[in-house]
Design brief:
Layout (H helix, E strand, L loop, with lengths): L10 H7 L7 E3 L1 H7 L4 E6 L10 H13 L4 E6 L2 H12 L3 E7 H6 L1 H9 L3 E5 L8 H13 L5 E3 L6 H19 L7 E5 L4 H17 L4 E7 L9 E5 L10 E5 L20 H8 L3 E6 L1 H15 L5 H15 L5 E6 L11
Parallel strand pairs: 2-12, 3-4, 3-6, 4-5, 7-8, 7-12, 8-11
Antiparallel strand pairs: 1-2, 9-10
């Protein structure tokens, strides 16, 4: 909710970050060569965080603030990665975690439940019902109902809202400094939109430059064909849950996933971060949908050239990178991959 230009990182959280940040950035020359482009593609690797994805950045701040407010138990919904991040952060700050994962995500990512439990979380699998059109709202409602039976507990939705988005901007701040050291500045910033935190984390600092200094940067977001939140979403008042737990926010939303039966990883949010909706409505952020097949093909190409296996949601970003690289010449393209290899870092 803050309107401040900068928000200081609490020392306790900065201490956590200092153990795994800055995350690396590297140019993917073999990938460039394979797709046949003269653009320079730089990849920021958030797969090196303790949770192997960007969500650790939010998890440690959220767990710290909850500890400060004397909360003892955190509950959340997850398709897998967010639950791992929050469980690890909660354990660090000596909090309990209960993660609700839908049965479909648990089937496609069977290792996530074990990783959450290894980090100390209790995991509850939620079966699909006839009252929900998307998996995140299904798990969110189940988590909220459960939370209301607990004492000194709070439910945390792992995307969309400011408390989750703001910590992610450390990604773009690092990218800007890392590229400056090489005398570079991006022409195109690519991200993907589930709830929008990944995209804003990468792009926010460059959007600010664009607004304040008229920097000519293109902002391009990939989304799944079954969850066209930017390309087909409607502006209005939305909440992630139907329990009256979270306030309504003005943003884009869709009624439910376009259910084609295909798994799309972590890109299934039916509402988007308000800032993404705002800048899309102003024409600053562009978006396009990609199929799961396109995402998987891009992931395979990346693995073939760079030796890194990435999750499906990252594949959507890479599909967008390929499109931009093929339709532009001699541009600098930046993308943040938020899943990749086993973490090098542990701060438990």
């Amino acid at each position: 909710m803050s309107t401040e230009r900068e928000i200081p990182i609490p020392p306790e959280v900065l201490d956590c970050y200092s153990k795994y940040r800055p995350t690396p950035i590297f140019r993917v020359k073999k990938f460039e060569e394979l797709i046949g482009t003269d653009c320079e593609i730089y990849v920021k690797d958030e797969g090196t965080t303790p949770s192997n994805n960007h969500k650790a950045n939010s998890a440690y701040l959220i767990a710290y603030l909850c500890k400060k407010d004397k909360v003892k138990t955190l509950t959340t919904e997850t398709t897998g990665n967010w639950g791992v991040a929050l469980a690890k952060a909660a354990r660090y700050f000596e909090l309990e975690t209960i993660c609700f994962i839908d049965a479909e995500s648990n089937r496609f990512r069977p290792d996530r439940k074990a990783l959450m439990e290894k980090a100390g979380a209790k995991v509850i699998v939620v079966e699909q019902d006839d009252n929900h059109n998307d998996l995140l709202s299904l798990s969110a409602d189940a988590a909220i109902q459960y939370t209301r039976t607990l004492k000194d507990a709070t439910y945390i939705f792992g995307s969309v809202y400011g408390y989750f988005v703001i910590p992610q901007t450390i990604i773009g701040l690092e990218i800007k400094e890392q590229l400056q050291e090489q005398g570079k500045y991006p022409d195109i910033v690519v991200g993907s939109c589930g709830g929008g935190a990944n995209f804003l984390g990468t792009a926010a600092v460059f959007i600010m430059d664009h607004l304040e200094s008229a920097k000519q940067v293109e902002f391009f977001s990939a989304e799944a064909t079954s969850c066209p939140i930017l390309t087909q979403g409607k502006s209005g008042l939305y909440s992630i849950d139907s329990q009256g737990y979270y306030p309504m926010i003005k943003t884009y939303g869709i009624e439910g996933l376009l259910n084609d039966g295909q798994y799309i990883g972590g890109l299934g949010s039916t509402i988007i971060a308000p800032a993404v909706a705002h800048y899309h409505s102003k024409g600053i952020i562009k978006a396009k949908t990609f199929t799961p097949e396109e995402a998987q093909k891009a992931s395979n190409l990346f693995r073939e050239t760079e030796g890194k296996k990435v999750a499906l949601e990252t594949g959507y970003q890479l599909a967008a990178v390929i499109e931009k690289a093929k339709s532009n010449s001699k541009k600098i393209i930046v993308v943040n991959i938020s899943s990749g290899r086993d973490s090098t870092y542990s701060i438990d």
